[in-house]
Design goal:
Layout lengths: L4 H6 L24 E3 L2 E4 L3 H13 L5 E4 L8 H4 L3 E3 L6 H8 L3 H21 L11 E5 L5 H18 L7 E4 H7 L7 E5 L3 E3 L2 H15 L2 E3 L4 E7 L2 E6 L3 E4 L1 E4 L16 E10 L4 H7 L6 E4 L5 E5 L5 E5 L18 H14 L8 E11 L6 E5 L4 E5 L5 H17 L9 H4 L10 H18 L6 H8 L7
Parallel strand pairs: 1-12, 2-3, 2-13, 3-9, 5-15, 13-20
Antiparallel strand pairs: 4-8, 5-7, 6-7, 10-11, 11-12, 14-17, 14-18, 15-16, 16-17, 19-20
Helix pairs in contact: 2-8, 2-11, 5-6, 5-11
Length: 474
């Protein structure tokens, strides 16, 4: 009996993140091995920490900034994601309108400005990360997706008019038009936002920001996990394995990993996301799918796929299974999940049957810091001397720069347009403690999958979450 197309395609895949699996990755900086001082200490060298350190030096070039990272820059979620750099600060339009309606014109304008500034930073520092402002295509893969798709386009156009942000309005595509963009028999329609998203190589972006930080004079210590943060005199003391940093202010951007503030455990859960990368497509394979405009793509299911082309002509294919391991377990072994990769491979060839025979070269997973409102939240501790940002829920590549600016505004005591936002002032609903937390999350995952199988009809549990303002449908 011959192997299924998906199984054969996975046979030689390397169990490693494609973006990070590079021989030219930067050599790690030396760990901290002494007691030192700084004007600002930043914990975590993912996008939040890297942007915070770089923007702090841009605001005040004389500031002494120290950046502490437990592994290496970009090693966790920042280097493992799909490389969608979105203008959205709210994990998409629907989520933003539901939770931050009156502020959405401002959030839309600030988000698009933030994306412009990311592109300008990449150009100014010569960061070679394949930054492409291609936009994103939302596709209906079931007929029942179409009403939500049209509603989304209408809401996006209204918001664009209200915010006054420059750029073309989203373009509505019927089945013929969307298949002319990308040749897939799975598509029934689409909405193309030409200006609201860029594609990027996330690891190279992280490494480029790391280099920009070093060039600006930031002191970076890698392989230096912070064990504790305590008040000391007028400032804070950050303890590491072989040293410490004393600073009057600190910024925390560690995502889902081991929160250094106990209060964050109430708001964050680690959810695993999985992705795969194909080998480069041949000229004939590229011609068979079109995709001339190189948009990022996401479908409209509750269990959704995201996919895109890379600079060297591969397809990244990910999503669908968002997995919470009971108890919030995070282990290296969970970076690989064969049952998910087999499912994703089968779905890939259902979407692109003309690519049968294409092989996957890499499979990987990683942890997303998820909160109940599905987008970043902020707070302070130690009498305002420490500020944190967390809970991006998968759309942090772009939003992390906005988050870094919020952290610096808060730490400096500035009242800005950003700090006045309800998003910045409020908190998500906390998750219940274990074991109830695991039960609630698994019930929600099962209900979302059931809705996808029944034309989007939401069961009593999902309708209850909707009434409580905790619903999620993308």
């Amino acid at each position: 009996m011959s192997a299924l197309p998906g199984e054969a395609a996975l046979r030689d895949a390397r169990p490693a993140c494609f973006w990070l699996d590079r021989p030219d990755a930067p050599e790690p900086a030396a760990p901290l091995r002494e007691a030192t001082t700084a004007d600002l200490a930043v914990v975590g060298a993912g996008f939040t920490g890297l942007w915070t350190a770089l923007l702090a030096k841009e605001r005040d070039p004389s500031a002494d900034v120290v950046l502490l990272e437990g592994r290496t820059a970009g090693w966790a979620a920042s280097g493992r994601n799909g490389g969608f750099c979105s203008a959205s600060l709210t994990h998409g339009l629907a989520n933003g309108l539901e939770r931050f309606g009156p502020d959405m014109p401002v959030l839309d304008r600030l988000g698009r400005q933030n994306l412009d500034e990311i592109g300008a930073t990449v150009a100014r520092h010569g960061i070679d990360c394949d930054f492409e402002r291609t936009g994103e295509l939302a596709v209906a893969t079931q007929p029942w997706h179409l009403p939500d798709l049209w509603d989304h386009a209408a809401a996006a156009r209204r918001l664009a008019a209200a915010s006054g942000a420059p750029g073309a309005p989203p373009e509505l595509l019927d089945a013929e038009a969307v298949r002319a963009e990308i040749a897939s028999p799975a598509y029934y329609g689409g909405v193309w936002d030409r200006d609201g998203c860029a594609m990027v190589d996330p690891a190279r972006l992280a490494w480029g920001l790391r280099r920009a930080c070093l060039d600006a004079g930031v002191r970076i210590y890698e392989q230096t996990p912070v064990g504790a943060i305590h008040p000391e005199g007028p400032g804070l003391r950050l303890s590491t394995r072989h040293g410490s940093v004393r600073a009057p202010r600190a910024a925390l951007g560690t995502g889902a990993y081991a929160p250094l503030l106990r209060r964050l455990r109430r708001y964050l859960v680690p959810v695993y996301d999985y992705a795969m990368m194909t080998e480069p497509l041949s000229a004939a394979q590229r011609a068979s799918i079109g995709w001339r405009h190189r948009q990022g793509v996401g479908d409209m299911g509750n269990q959704f796929h995201y996919y895109r082309l890379t600079g060297d002509g591969r397809i990244l294919w990910g999503g669908y299974d968002a997995v919470y391991y009971n108890g919030g377990l995070i282990t290296a072994g969970q970076d690989q999940r064969p049952v998910t990769f087999a499912r994703l491979a089968a779905q890939f060839f259902e979407t692109f049957p003309q690519l049968e025979g294409l092989r996957f070269t890499h499979t990987w997973g990683g942890v997303i810091d998820t909160c109940a409102r599905f987008c970043v939240f902020f707070g302070t501790a130690h009498r305002g001397r420490l500020a944190y940002a967390a809970g991006y829920t998968g759309l942090g590549v772009g939003a992390s720069r906005f988050g870094a600016n919020v952290l610096l505004d808060v730490l400096s005591g500035q009242q800005t347009e950003r700090t006045a936002l309800g998003m910045v002032r409020g908190k998500p609903v906390p998750f219940p403690p274990e074991p109830l937390r695991s039960a609630v999350i698994q019930l929600t995952r099962a209900s979302l999958a059931r809705a996808d199988r029944h034309e989007g009809r939401r069961d009593l549990w999902l309708r209850t979450l909707d009434r409580l303002g905790l619903g999620f449908d993308s």
